[in-house]
Amino acid sequence: MSEACIFCKIIDREIPAKIEYEDEQVIVFYDIAPKAPLHLLIVPKAHIPTIMDVSDSQMNMVAHMHKVAQILYTRLELAGMRLVNNCNELGGQEVFHLHYHLLGWKLEV
Ligand code: 5GP
Ligand code: ZN
Questions:
Q1: What is the rounded CA–CA span in Å between residue 64 and residue 49?
Q2: Is residue 100 within 8 Å of residue 65, measured between CB atoms?
């Protein structure tokens, strides 16, 4: 937990978010400024600043983040998805708490 971190505050319910999924390791909520028809953020509950700070023993948790993407793809009936991680300022990262963007598309009916 990092006191100044906006995602830690969402995890601790200090600020609101629309939560789509939660388990003991991760929380998933809707991005406040969506850049696709469906835009979720897959966020570990542990405060890890960037993907480069993930230790070998935490890699199972990163694999779990991918498993959660699979679960949500099925649950939300998506037909296409992009999983994006921005790392450090030059990589476009604005919130320094590890997360994947899940950008999703459904089939047009
Ligand atoms: P980054 O650039 O760090 O990869 O992405 C951070 C994302 O967090 C951005 O897409 C931004 O819209 C989102 N974001 C920033 N603050 C909040 C917030 O308070 N609530 C939610 N739901 N999303 C946020
Ligand atoms: Zn944090």
A1: 18
A2: yes
Structure-block tokens of residue 4:
């100044």
Please measure the distance between the N-terminal and C-terminal CA atoms of the chain and give it in whole angstroms.
43
Tell me the pLDDT of the chain (109 aa) as tens digits: 677 999 999 999 999 999 999 999 999 999 999 999 999 999 999 999 999 999 999 999 999 999 999 999 999 999 999 999 999 999 999 999 999 999 999 998 7
99 is catalytic: yes
How far apart CA 68 and CA 6 sit, in angstroms, is 21
Assigned token pair, 5: 């971190």
Which protein residue's CA is at the shortest distance from atom 12 of ligand 1? 33
Alpha helices (H) in 1-109, listed in sequence order: 6-11, 59-75
Number of the ligand closest to the Cα of 4? 2
Contact 86, 108 (CB under 8 A): no
